[in-house]
Write a structure and sequence with these properties.
about 200 residues; mainly beta; Pectate Lyase C-like; 2 domains; six-stranded parallel beta sheet; about 0% helix; elongated
């Protein structure tokens, strides 16, 4: 069981169910969460350092004033999370959060510094990335259906094998970003040009 206001280090939490729980000022260092459920839970002012969530359900979790450093989510549901409510340092986020084979749809990252974030082989439908720094981000293999990109920095980002994205090159920075065919053709749709098939 996880108790509020407690410091944990090098712990493995397996099949913990804390749906709609409210945890305040917890600290987790080098902890692993395996097949846990935190649906609609609130982590308030908590700190996660070098933690891993694997096969967990964190749908609709709230993270007000939480901080994250080198935290990974693997094969987990992290749906409908407003990450802007967390506490991010004024400088860029160093290895803050990464997602691998996760569902992160309907989440918000608007305006955040997510430089070098990894969102690989995920389902990221209807995610708000507007005004965020995604330079050198890795979106390989991710479904970005209906996700929002506006004034987003995608410099040197890797979107190879990513799909279903709609990115306007005139409204976003895409210098040296990597794309793959045929999905890259979607970048042309926002341009005032006529495509002719021969």
């Amino acid at each position: 069981m996880i108790c509020t206001g407690t410091y944990y280090t090098d712990q493995v939490f397996k099949e913990v169910h804390l749906e709609q729980a409210h945890l305040v000022s917890n600290e987790f260092h080098d902890c692993t969460f395996d097949r846990c459920s935190f649906v609609e839970a609130t982590f308030q002012g908590c700190r996660f350092v070098n933690c891993v969530f694997q096969h967990c359900d964190l749908s609709l979790v709230q993270v007000p004033d939480c901080s994250f450093a080198a935290t990974r989510f693997e094969s987990s549901k992290v749906i409908g999370v407003n990450w802007t409510k967390a506490h991010w340092p004024a400088t860029r986020l160093w290895d803050s959060i990464d997602f691998f084979k996760c569902a992160i749809s309907h989440s918000t990252f608007i305006g955040l510094n997510l430089r070098r974030i990894q969102i690989q082989d995920c389902v990221a439908m209807d995610v708000d990335f507007r005004e965020s720094d995604l330079s050198q981000a890795d979106f390989t293999g991710t479904d970005l259906s209906d996700s929002l990109f506006l004034a987003t920095d995608l410099t040197e980002a890797d979107l190879s094998r990513a799909r279903n994205y709609w990115i306007d090159p005139s409204q976003n920075a895409v210098k040296k970003a990597k794309f793959s065919l045929p999905e890259v053709m979607s970048l042309l749709y926002s341009l005032d040009i006529v495509l002719v098939e021969e």
